[in-house]
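Structure first, sequence second, as always.
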């Protein structure tokens, strides 16, 4: 308790979406005031720390970078209905269309 490490899977609330996201890796620990990197690839982050992490959603999720569209670029991390962290999305990696599971309705429409 009181620290987050890679592999942690809380619920991410972004706009109206509530989807479980995995902290796949903690990239850098950042100084809150200056924004400069303090530590590369830390093992964990504690309460009060600021960092850059890579999050992987369990299901498809519609988000944007904060610089492109602010309302879809803010998020809150919740665990057991308590807010654990808040932040902004720096960048996104788009998944290839059709790479996921195809539903029956989509398959029928494609015929």
């Amino acid at each position: 308790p009181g620290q987050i490490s890679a592999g942690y899977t809380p619920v991410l609330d972004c706009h109206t979406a509530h989807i479980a996201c995995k902290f796949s890796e903690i990239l850098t620990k950042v100084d809150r005031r200056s924004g400069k990197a303090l530590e590369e690839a830390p093992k964990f982050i504690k309460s009060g720390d600021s960092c850059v992490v890579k999050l992987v959603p369990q299901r498809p999720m519609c988000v944007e970078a904060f610089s492109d569209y602010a309302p879809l670029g803010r998020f809150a991390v919740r665990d057991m209905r308590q807010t654990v962290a808040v932040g902004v999305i720096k960048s996104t990696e788009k998944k290839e269309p059709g790479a996921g599971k195809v539903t029956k309705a989509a398959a029928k429409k494609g015929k």
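Margin note: The chain has a mean pLDDT of 88.
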